[in-house]
Amino acid sequence: MRYFAITYIRKPNGQVDEQALITKSLNNSDLQTCNVILDFKEKKIIKASIDGNILGTDWAKLIEYYKKVYPDNIEALEKDNQ
Fold first, then answer.
1. How far apart are CA 18 and CA 8, in angstroms?
2. Are 75 and 4 a contacting pair, CB within 8 Å?
3. What dihedral do alpha carbons 64, 68, 70, 73 form, nearest 10°?
């Protein structure tokens, strides 16, 4: 697996749901709908924004954040893409 992608979905009541995807390839709909896309092979941020606000461009900071939320997934992606 190569990519870690997250889609944030805002519900009518204001609550935000998060849907994570780990995949070896991206399709056009992923590029359009996902809010965050991280490429672990190239160690680069393809996309990182929520509601038009850019989350950041620092790879290390984003990875540290998602390691807290998805520790097993991030560890597996890092191991697969060394």
1. 5
2. no
3. 50
Locate 43 and state its tokens. 């160690």
Q: What is the pLDDT of residues 7-61, one digit of tens each?
A: 999 999 999 999 999 999 999 999 999 999 999 999 999 999 988 889 889 999 9
Q: Quick check: helix, strand or coil at residue 81? A: coil
The whole model's pTM is what? 0.92
Q: Which residue has the tokens 């519900």?
A: 11
Sheet containing strand 3-10, edge to edge, reads: 16-23, 3-10, 36-39, 44-50, 53-54
Tokens of 6: 């997250």
